[in-house]
Amino acid sequence: MSKPDIYKILLNTLENPTKLSILMLLTHHRKMTVTQMSKFVRVGKANLYHFVGQMVKDGLLTKPETLVKKNYVEKYYQLDRRFFEALDPSEQRKRLKAARPEELKTILQSTLASIGLDFRLMAEEIARADDTTLKQIAKSVAEEQITLSYSILSDKAYEHVLAELKRINKTITELERHEKPSLQGNRMILIGLPRFTTEEG
Of these four, 10, 63, 105, 113, which has the most CB atoms within 10 Å of its CB? Predict the structure, then answer.
């Protein structure tokens, strides 16, 4: 049997907003049942079971941990760390750049929608903050460990900032090479979107 192409599996996952949303969910909650996932992912439960099953088969998720509670059985799924540890960020970017325009369109659309879920989950976590967490938030803001920026820039300014972001991405890639991926760690989300023009202008 030939070895599965983990990069092809990853790109197929990036094209599917449901699968990508499941990944996002499991970076916030270490393990979840399909019923728990269905509260956040807006697809039918049958479809959700189907996608989760595919992700287990592809190695993105571990085989479920089965727990018996009273008269029913619950199956908990979590990210399979081995899949993500096997990824080379440089090869990942190479494959992404080689994707067809239609694939890139789907990947971008899916990624932005799933990041929206990621932000919503973070907002809900902050809304539930207790006194200890509130002190941590205040400390993080005071020490500029939390940084938020939203800007609409001219082409020249965008190119300047983009060069800085590329340097940051290079630093992140180097760090990822020497560290095991943290599936529940500090979040660094960098998004730069140029202005796209249509045929009508």
Answer: 10
Q: How many domains does the chain have?
A: 1
Torsion over CA: 41, 73, 49, 23 (sign) = positive
Q: Is residue 26 part of a domain?
A: yes
Angle between helices 101-127 and 6-14 in degrees, nearest 10: 70
**3-state secondary structure at position 25:** helix
For 43-98, how does the pLDDT look when each residue is reduced to its tens digit (9 = 90+)?
A: 999 999 999 999 999 999 999 999 988 888 899 999 999 998 888 888 888 999 99
CA end-to-end distance (rounded Å), the chain: 51
Phi, psi of 73 (to 5 degrees): -110, 135
Q: Per residue in 128-184, pLDDT tens?
A: 999 999 999 999 999 999 888 899 999 999 999 999 999 998 888 788 777 766 666
**Are 164 and 67 contacting, i.e. CB atoms less than 8 angstroms apart?**
no
| The overall pTM is greater than 0.85 | no
- Domain carrying residue 108: 6-130
* Residue listed under structure tokens 């092809």: 8
Containing 185, the helix (H) or strand (E) segment is none
Residue 174 within any structural domain of the chain? no
Instruction: Specify if 178 maps to a domain.
Output: no
